[in-house]
Amino acid sequence: MSPAALLAIVGPTASGKSALAVAVAGLVGGEIVGTDSMQAYRGMDIGTATPTREEQRGIPHHMIDVWEIDQSVTVVDFQNAAREVIDAIKAADKTPVVVGGSGLYVRAVLEELEFPATDPQVRAHWEEQLTLLGAPALHALLAERDPLAAAAIEITNGRRIVRALEVNEITGEPFIAQLPEPVDHYPTIRVGLRIDRDVLDARIEQRVDAMWDAGFVDEVHRLQQTGLAYSPTARLALGYEPILRFLTGEISEAQARQITIDDTRKFARRQQRWFTKDERIQWWDYNADGLAASVVELFTST
Questions:
Q1: What is the pLDDT of residues 132-171, one digit of tens each?
Q2: Which residues on neighbouring strands pair with residue 20, listed in sequence order?
Q3: Which of 40, 38, 79, 80 minimizes the C-alpha distance to 61?
Q4: Which of 20-29, 81-90, 267-276 has the lowest mean pLDDT?
Q5: Is the domain 120-171 a CATH 3.40.1580.10 member?
Q6: In the CATH scheme, what is the homologous superfamily, with its name and number, of domain 7-112+185-301?
Q7: Of 112, 143, 223, 260, which is least surrounded by CB within 10 A?
């Protein structure tokens, strides 16, 4: 076994990370730890592309269906829960295979990252303002209070804008929007999947079509009955907000589908930019011959 004893598989959505993780875990006697914050919500299976039982192929999967959709789960909550899982897998002399496309959550789990405290009342206030005023208006306010944070956060990223304003109010200090230099919490071998943009765009559209065929709209309608529209974080998952807008008659189903495709493509671009900056990642073509065996050889020989 590799001295690192932990393998991470990263890359953009629809690049084949989950299937590769299952194949690799089967070869090394591993268990999979997801770092998709939205797959951790119960009932959000189709829209988050949570691996089905058949796709899991008997490999234990963790950090799936952990929280109810009405819970506001912070990155710290996720960090603590995922590390408990990883430590338990390692204690059982198994190999944790961490897989995910959210760069922040991958880093939060694998590295020595500490996050400022949160205050539920302050957070609720800014989330309410986000709903009332919209992300651009809050971004303008953040630019007045903390210009450096505003410059580092996209004007449409309501979740990070709210977090920056919350930290600013709690601490009286600027929000540090840039993450520190990486220091591993776990020695880790990192593998990234490389895929051409045109191919990825086509795969994303195919995935969204498959989600629609599998009952994505019905899933959102069911979750709507249990409060999805009022969930502070779960409703922000790709595709769920457009379908909620369709179900309330604001847009057509065709528009909801196209918005989902467009938003997913934009998200994939951000994922690619994020991971490309990490020099520790060893990149492989998503469709390389014998990919799983090659990754296992890299892991066990490093």
A1: 888 899 999 999 988 888 887 888 888 889 988 988 888 8
A2: none
A3: 40
A4: 267-276
A5: no
A6: P-loop containing nucleotide triphosphate hydrolases (3.40.50.300)
A7: 112
